[in-house]
């Protein structure tokens, strides 16, 4: 049975400024597609470029993998928020409206 996390749209879990470029530029639409694309070193570089930092991209992929039960090494440094609901969407929207 396929894990339902794999079919979650990126826009449901990531900030739109990250999810939309992943969708339009790399044709990565779901968590499952993100994890599959991450396996390729070439794709990793492309994915890392679309996040605010490579560390942020690695954290996002590790978090998505953890939802599936994959064990990953914990990061000891703080990472800027990439997920939906962190408040940065509201801040960027209000800043662009001003």
Secondary structure layout plus pairing:
Elements: H1 10-13, H2 16-26, H3 31-38, H4 41-50, H5 54-67, H6 88-97
Helix pairs in contact: 2-4, 4-5
Keywords summarizing the entry:
single chain; 98 residues; mainly alpha; 58% helix; globular; disordered C terminus
Provide structural commentary.
The chain is mainly α and 98 residues long. The protein has one domain. It is 58% helix and 0% strand. The chain is built from six helices and no strands. Helix 2 packs across helix 4 (41-50) and helix 4 packs across helix 5 (54-67). The N and C termini lie far apart (48 Å).
Overall pLDDT score: 84
Characterize the overall form. Answer: globular
What share of the residues lie within helices?
Answer: 55-70%
Number of helices: 6
Report Rg: 14 Å
Q: Which class best fits the helix and strand makeup?
A: mainly alpha
Q: Largest sheet at a glance?
A: none
Can you count the beta strands? 0
- Span between termini: 48 Å
Unreliable parts:
89-98
Order of helices and strands: HHHHHH
Count of discrete domains: 1
Strand content range:
under 5%
